[in-house]
Amino acid sequence: MHRHLSFNLATGFLSSQRAFTLCKHIRKTILTVKVIRKGSIFERISEYDSCRFLGLPVTTCCTTTHSLSDHSKETDSKKANGQSSSSTQKVPIRRGEELELRIQGLVSGGDGISRIGRYVVMIPHAVPGQLVKVVIGRVRSSYANAKVIQVVEQSPYETEPVCEHFGQFGCGGCKFQHISYNKQLEEKYQQVLRHYEGLFTRSNYIVENVMKPIVGSPVIFGYRNKMEFTFSNRRWIPGDHLGESKRISSAVVEENLRNEVSFKTNEEDFVLGLKPAGHFDKVLPIEYCHIQETVANEILNWVQKRTSEMHTTAYDVYSHQGFLRNLVIRTARNERNELEVMVNFVTSFGEDSSLLRPLALELGKQFSSIRSIVQNFTTSKGGASKGEEEQVLFGCNYIQHYVLGRTLRFTANCFFQTNPLQTEKLYQIVREAANLKVEDVVLDLFCGIGSIGLCLASDCKYVYGIDVVEEAIQMAKLNAKINGVRNAEFILANLEKSSLQDPEIQRLFHRNGILPPNVVIVDPPRGGLHSTLIKWLRWMKPSRIVYVSCNPATQVRDLESLCLMQRYRLVSIQPVDMFPHTPHIECIAILERI
Ligand SMILES: C[S@@+](CC[C@H](N)C(=O)[O-])C[C@H]1O[C@@H](n2cnc3c(N)ncnc32)[C@H](O)[C@@H]1O
């Protein structure tokens, strides 16, 4: 759908009106662009579309969208200053031009930003404060992309990255290892502030009263409890991008398949690692990932070696053939602070399905902290590492993490926060934000395995949790039992549909003499809240809403809708850094009914 749209606009056969109708299917951040000229719509949509086309995950799409929204604010401010619109201003640079620029800050996606007058240049892998020589790449009417070719003057914020896989052509996981942690925090705080600026201005909020200082992570390496690696027969050789012509485009492969020319996988080039940014079809072998625990690296190396010796194939993203797809390693710490590890092999269905059993038995014996080895089978052609069927190869199908006095059990396809030390702080902040009284009834929307609701259950009368993943709801019910929580109930429902108005759910909220929920916690994925859910929340009128978000752009959009007609007051915004060395930021906002 999105590809068609770009094509139609590119060929210029589409009227602005029709383009606008089609635009409605795209994220709201893009919809805020006013449809005045076909050129400007095309510019933004094609940017978004090309990200999807390259096969990058949705999160990356969102990030790109934010960069654009940062950039569109720039355009808006030009208009506010009475300057000509971006589409009519003279572009001060040309593609291929080399020039020296000072890096002024970072945009939401993590790229450095510099300005020539009001014209924006986005430069990946740059550090704020650096003076860099760049070569200009793609040029748009109001911004351009550029690449660093030389650092002319270093920045006081530069640090030595610890990881050999870090870099412009590296694994694509960490973006900020070369920036001091304090500067990372400052930039993330500024990023949140930029997202909220419009809301503050329109609603007369005083920034100092609302924005709280960012909570940094006490540990910035070895903090991640989940890493997802990819098996591939296409090794990424750093610098490979320079020989673009050597790359086989998906169009060529599709053409070959149409002509029944089989696309051979190279079984000898078997790698296990991470996809570099912008290359969904290549994998960089990883020896040691510094943001995951040591034991996870040992397991990665063990699996790397043993699977490369096996007579099996890695999944090929073009031909969709091959067996091994992903290796997901998750860690947790139980009530006794013992490490519990889960290893999840994501594979295709097929004749090799029993192949991993002996390997898993050996792996389980080799590492005493492994509690669970599972195999998830999938037919998905996308990059999703969730399985349609699961088999246990060793131990059980779950691991357990202990947080705020609760033991939380989760299985391979359930969400769990990825920075455990910060999770404890995050939940503590949510608890304080909820400010519960014994008679309060809490609704924990997007509850996952019940983590937040169960941590709050002892502070209130009753908790309802809702999530769309059946496995997560089963775990939430089990977690309530394990922790002896009797005043919590978990419901399977899709919060993108109007299921909250279902009479059955409404009946649930009105029985046993329990009042309907008056405090709501929402913790949605990056896309934020669906408009029907926002309408429903406005109709339900909870006295307090605690909004936990991993995407400030959608959070601001949703808060603005919730605050419409002055129904709610924004009490505070608390940024928490759950993801050091990446551009991502978690934010907790509190709304109080007026
Ligand atoms: C960011 S996680 C939050 C989980 C939980 N609050 C926690 O702290 O572990 C988002 C959750 O939203 C759920 N989810 C995603 N889309 C949903 C939908 N349309 N309806 C209900 N739940 C959804 C996911 O399954 C996931 O558990």
TrEMBL record:
SUPFAM superfamilies membership: Nucleic acid-binding proteins (SSF50249), S-adenosyl-L-methionine-dependent methyltransferases (SSF53335)
UniProt KW keywords: Methyltransferase, S-adenosyl-L-methionine, Transferase
Domain (TRAM): residue spans on this chain: 92-150
Family statement drawn from the similarity comment of this UniProt entry: Belongs to the class I-like SAM-binding methyltransferase superfamily. RNA M5U methyltransferase family.
PANTHER family attached to this UniProt entry: RNA M5U METHYLTRANSFERASE, TRNA (URACIL(54)-C(5))-METHYLTRANSFERASE
Name this protein carries in UniProt: TRAM domain-containing protein
Region (Disordered): 66-92
